[in-house]
Design a protein that fits this description.
Number of helices: 10
Helix content: 40-55%
Oligomer: single chain
Shape: globular
Number of strands: 12
Strand order of the largest sheet: 1-12-9-8-6-7
Length: 292
């Protein structure tokens, strides 16, 4: 077997660095503000994965000095009840960021709830106003996962201007805002997906390849241009024959690590960066109230 040649884009190390910087900023500013920044995460039901994500976010908040206003609702909570809670949080001066943990139970309309969040408290960066600001190149809160990808690429000084970037995935959560951010950085961007014809022909031209399909191991080594930068946004849980489960991404990591120049691991790549950008968005909203 060939020795791994790709350099690791270490999202966990960068996320730790960002959290330290946020902690320093908050410590300085909170004396003037008279309060710490606040993040409200709304979770409905008992999805184990969602509960784990929320716990992780709350731990990260505590680490940097963000107060958690988490609210856990029973599965049968109504749309109206949640809308009323969001309206209260929009008016609560202690709360700088609001996030609705997805997925929600089937009887709830997630899109409608996201639209109820005040754009300047939209910690996930998914409100139409913030997506519109991204399209227009205006300042605004950015979708956390693609913003985390961009921050990681910047940390490793990976050039984007004029490069061919291919985003495999077209979700509003990752794929579409990811393409816009790369375009803003002067990359030449192609959006592909699971229905694209001749997908390997498209991905083989990518200097920067972003995999965000949610399909385990969809991107193979044969689909990757030698020397490419490969970013794996996927987080998929698989179980082996012994019953042990582990997290894997959308790319075949071991094989692609012998082809690419840079690669992100799963876990330890984009996952921690997503949480770091959530904290960054919350602190940005907090600083906005101070005029900074």
């Amino acid at each position: 077997m060939n020795r791994q040649t790709a350099k690791i884009l270490d999202g966990k190390a960068l996320a730790d660095k960002i959290q330290q910087e946020l902690r320093q900023t908050i410590t300085i500013v909170q004396g003037k503000m008279g309060r710490w920044p606040g993040l409200a995460v709304l979770m409905v039901g008992d999805n184990p994965a969602s509960a784990a994500y929320v716990r992780n976010k709350e731990k990260s908040c505590a680490k940097v000095g963000i107060t958690s206003f988490g609210k856990h609702f029973p599965t049968q909570t109504s749309q109206t009840e949640l809308e009323e809670v969001i309206a209260e949080l929009n008016e609560d001066e202690r709360v700088d960021g609001i996030l609705v943990q997805l997925p929600l139970p089937n009887h709830l309309d997630a899109v409608s709830l996201l639209h109820r969040i005040a754009p300047d408290k939209d910690a996930d960066g998914l409100h139409p106003v913030n997506l519109g600001r991204l399209v227009r190149g205006e300042i605004g809160l950015r979708s956390c996962t693609p913003a985390g990808v961009m921050r990681l690429l910047a940390e490793y000084k990976i050039p984007l201007q004029g490069k061919n970037a291919v985003v495999v995935g077209r979700s509003i959560l990752v794929g579409k805002p990811m393409a816009l951010m790369l375009l803003e950085a002067n990359a030449t961007v192609t959006i592909a997906h699971s229905k694209s014809q001749n997908l390997p022909d498209i991905t083989q031209n990518a200097d920067i390849l972003i995999a965000a399909t949610g399909i385990t191991g969809m991107i193979t080594a044969e689909m990757v241009k030698p020397g490419a930068v490969v970013v794996d946004v996927g987080i998929n849980r698989v179980t082996d024959n012994s019953g042990k489960s582990r997290l894997v991404g959308d790319i075949q990591f071991e094989a692609i690590a012998n082809v690419a120049e840079y690669i992100t691991p799963v876990p330890g790549g984009i996952g921690p960066m997503t949480v770091a950008m959530l904290l960054q968005n919350t602190v940005s909203s907090y600083l906005q109230t101070t005029g900074n």
